[in-house]
Amino acid sequence: MIRPNRQSYLTLLAVLALLAVGCRTKSDGDSALSQLLMLSAAQVRATATGGGTIQEPTMSLTVPQGALEEDTDISASRISLPDGKDSIVPVQAAYKFGPEGLQFNKPATLKICYDAVNLIAKGYQEKTLQVQYYDPETEEYVSMGGDVDMVNHCVSAPIYHFSSYILTAQLLSIGNTAPTIGGASFFPATPIAGLPVTVRSSITDWDAGSAIATVRLFYRTAGSGGVFKSLAMLPEQNDPTGQFYTAKVPAADVAAAGLEYYIQAYDSLNSGRTLPATAPAAFNTIAGDTQDGTTPIRFQTTVTQMSAGFSRDLTVQVKGASSATFFPVPADTLTFAGGKGTTSRPTWLSARYSAQVIGSSFLQASYGSLNVSAPISVYPGLLNRIDVLYNDAVLPNPLNVDGNSITQLDAAGYDAYNNFMFVQPVFSATGGIGTFGDTANYGKFTAANVFPDTSGTITATLGGYSISYNVLVHTTWVLCQFDFGLFDDACVFN
Fold first, then answer.
1. What is the pLDDT of residues 324-366, one digit of tens each?
2. Can you give the pTM of this predicted structure?
3. Does residue 483 form part of some domain?
């Protein structure tokens, strides 16, 4: 057997690369060799508590803290660009991420950088760049949107699960271009009978002289052959890109058979587009499922305690009977029971619980007819103030005491939400007004035997926090005067 040497092997690769250039017609890669060869997969260990990042020369994927339920080995491989479809043109880079189908509780951020000179030379506009999810089985593209940095020439987009992601550009028409419809994402990813499903799509108008006027979702039960119902798709709240529109299909319209659907968008110049292009004659289909009989809904992680002033971002998840995983969904309601805290939505998908009042409580959420509740104990937060106490009341300022007297003091701590906490600060006195006892006599202030009345301060210190009170110590000495042989009754004459 003749084994080729290194030079002949490299020559062969070069020839194959040139052949690939000649054969490529529908997609637009940055080099023939990247079309021919799959690069070695980069792999890192991402943790549930800290997340993780995969970095390559022109790509980075950042998984944030709390996005994963457990520590996971994640990988990225560069793959061949697929063919373009309709107005979508894949450019430069495509990546396959694993484990395939991994769901995130909060979105990971995918950033792909591009060669702007090469892109513009081929007639594409940077503003049209997007990150697209590509399904090789259906050959469908679903846009994840894209925040285009035209200074550093990178596109960033949130992704919610692992699959193949591609950087794409749009072919624009001369004159007014109809809005681009970026496919549909479903939450939960598989519709579950009896639960609502949120449909999300990137709708973009590339023309300066028009704007998105209407977006509608048309849907019906898969296989029913019935009339398509329709819902207005509205701009998504907490979407920094301004590209995404959502509609929620009511629970009563979601069956185990799944949904048949299409999307229609018009701009303000009455130029419209549907996806699929020939809808309603053609439509897309997504299979459905039934609710899991054991745990149909849950929080993705368990939180048993929280300190006032701190927040936790949680994701509500639901599960179908046939699914091997839970799917994140945007909760319908959020409650921090008993007024122990507040709730908000930092993103359209996640739920933020912020603790404020100490005590036992519950974190609650609902999705459709399902409810989830988790007990939680709220503890005091960071120290915000100390009150020095005398007879269970806040010490007056100034404090008046007699010389040689003993005053038993105590202290109470409070956080920024006025929650009480036990504290044991160090007491000290200045100005020669007296001393505090040792550990066995904690908080015991013995006033000095002074003459005349003397002012000073007592201070309570804990860590970097301290509070001081003014103290006036009154003399207890009695002045005696001999006058015509008579003595004051309080005097003793020696």
1. 889 999 999 999 999 999 999 988 888 999 999 999 999 999 9
2. 0.76
3. no
Q: Taking a C-beta distance cutoff of 8 angstroms, is the pair 465, 384 a contact? A: no
Q: Does residue 426 carry a pLDDT above 80?
A: yes
Identify the DSSP state of 291.
B
- Burial grade of 214 (CB within 10 A; 0-12, 13-18, 19 or more): middle
Q: What share of the chain is helix, strand, coil (3-state, %, to 5)?
A: 10, 50, 45
Are residues 224 and 153 located together in one domain of the fold? no
Beta strands per DSSP E along 48-138:
52-56, 59-63, 72-78, 88-98, 103-113, 130-135
Q: CB–CB of 399/445 below 8 Å?
A: no
Cβ atoms of 63 and 104 closer than 8 Å: yes
Q: Is the peptide bond before 375 cis (omega within 30 degrees of 0)?
A: no
Q: Within this chain, do residues 405 and 365 fall inside the same structural domain, yes or no?
A: no
Distance CA 262, CA 247 (A): 12
How many CB atoms are located within 10 Å of the residue 296 CB? 22
What CATH number did the domain enclosing 196 receive? 2.60.40.10
CA triple 239-146-79, angle to 5 deg: 135
Instruction: Look up the domain containing 196 and give its range.
Output: 177-290
**Residue 24 and residue 168 in one domain:** yes
Which residues on neighbouring strands pair with residue 376, listed in sequence order? 361
